[in-house]
Design brief:
Pfam families: DUF155 (PF02582). One of its GO terms (biological process) is positive regulation of mitochondrial translation. This is Required for meiotic nuclear division protein 1-like protein. Belongs to the RMD1/sif2 family. 53% of the residues lie in helices and 12% in strands. The chain has 403 residues and is an alpha+beta fold. The strands form 2 sheets. The chain has an 8-stranded mixed β-sheet, sandwiched between helices. It has a two-stranded antiparallel sheet with strand order 2-7. Helix 3 packs antiparallel against helix 4, helix 8 runs antiparallel to helix 10 and helix 8 packs parallel to helix 11. It has 12 helices and 10 strands. It folds into 3 domains: 81 residues, no CATH class; 155 residues, no CATH class; 129 residues. The longest helix is centred in the C-terminal third of the chain and has 54 residues.
Length: 403
């Protein structure tokens, strides 16, 4: 093996009398190393490099604290390793950066943008649904829209009390009338309305919203479905709504109302799904901390706030909406009920409600666990306070007896 100039100063130190015993130990270690006690190295060059590294390390450890040249020796060792291996093995590894999380897609069943029909092809029109707030003030909204030049449609039955129907002449295509349904629960559905008019109505609607949602979320979680006028009974076929052109205007409005009712439920459910995901993200660190045996730093008021958010969301989904059962409006209107049920089935509403209720149940169990944990912790603190008070009382009694 060729002599390496970096090792000459180190080998000179090994001739000192007080290190001869260490040199004999090194030779013994080398013999055991060659006999197979060191890790298996594939070629002779790697073996020599490994042995030199081991000898030099032991030498520096022996000289550390006795020689004034320890830092100089460490520098020599580092330069030697850099020249022998081509890289500095003492350098720390670069940290691995986590990959960026991809954004989740919308939960609504929007048609693919690439499959959207061109504005000037065939007779397809567009029906769009948005959920913009928790609730609308329909009475004030109606007066505001009428003063803006829109027409109220009063042909709906009396049992459709929580919806406002508005007509407009600003059409996207001339094949059908422009129609807008405002549901009191905070959703709006547009039928064959041009984009400019749609934006204008959305601006008017902002003044009558209660607990409005974020604009980006409203436009992300929307429903768009194509429809056209055709022969035969009205139905939902292959993701398109086919409306019967022989119907009277009143009957056509009722059928559009049935489709709109299902679309409004879908967009509202999408907003609630986003709210539940945000809630899950806010408590996802708690199970990991419990798993690692760490102390969960959360107050009793924060736990009660989380429980309140959870039950409010569960109340909206299961009690304040028509997600669990068919509305009473369709009980004596079988043809409209079929359209409503078919649209709900196409939008996977029942399956989505089942999934969100299962998530709510798991979140409820976790919040109950945290509440019980804090209750036990509070009870244990009270017990220790009682023990300390009893101890103080005993000490006072002993002091009174002794002194």
């Amino acid at each position: 093996m060729q002599k390496i100039p970096y090792l000459r100063p180190i080998l000179g130190f090994t001739q000192l009398p007080w290190i001869r015993l260490q040199r004999n130990n090194w030779r013994t270690g080398l013999r055991h190393t060659l006999e197979g006690q060191c890790p298996r190295i594939q070629d002779s060059r790697s073996t020599a490099r490994y042995l030199v590294q081991k000898q030099t390390t032991v030498c520096i450890q022996a000289l550390y604290g006795r020689s004034l040249h320890s830092l100089w020796l460490a520098d020599i060792m580092q330069r030697f390793y850099s020249s022998a291996t081509g890289s500095n093995i003492l350098a720390s590894k670069q940290p691995i950066l986590p990959a960026k999380r991809t954004l989740k897609g919308p939960r609504t069943k929007q048609p693919s943008r690439t499959n959207q029909p061109a504005p000037d092809t065939e007779d397809l029109m567009k029906c769009t649904a948005f959920a913009t707030a928790d609730e609308y003030q329909l009475e004030n909204l109606c007066h505001d829209l009428i003063s803006s030049g829109y027409n109220e449609i009063t042909d709906l039955p009396r049992d459709a009390a929580n919806v406002l129907a508005i007509g407009t002449d600003m059409l996207a295509k001339p094949d059908d009338h422009g129609l807008i349904f405002f549901f009191r629960e905070g959703s709006v559905v547009f039928w064959n309305v041009e984009d400019k008019t749609m934006k204008n109505i959305m601006r008017i609607l902002e003044r009558h919203e209660i607990q409005a949602y974020e604009v980006a979320l409203v436009h992300w979680e929307n429903e768009e479905i194509n429809y056209r006028i055709s022969e035969g009974h009205s139905k939902l076929h292959r993701g398109q709504i086919l409306l019967n052109f022989d119907l009277e205007p009143n009957e056509s409005i009722l059928e559009k109302f049935a489709f709109s009712n299902a679309l409004s439920l879908s967009v509202k459910l999408a907003i609630w799904e986003v709210s539940l995901d945000c809630f899950v993200n806010s408590i996802q660190s708690i199970p990991e901390m419990l798993k690692a045996g760490k102390r969960v730093k959360i107050s009793r008021s924060e736990v009660m706030q989380k429980i309140g958010e959870l039950f409010a969301l569960r109340h909206r989904i299961n009690l304040s909406s028509d997600l669990l059962m068919t509305p009473d409006f369709y009980w004596d209107r079988e043809n409209l009920e079929q359209l409503y049920d078919k649209t709900c089935q196409y939008l996977n509403i029942n399956r989505r409600v089942k999934v969100i209720n299962e998530k709510l149940q798991h979140c409820t169990e976790l919040t109950d666990l945290m509440r019980n944990h804090l209750s036990e912790k509070h009870g244990l603190r009270l017990e220790w306070m009682i023990v300390i008070l009893i101890t103080i009382e005993v000490l006072f009694e002993l002091g009174r007896v002794i002194f």
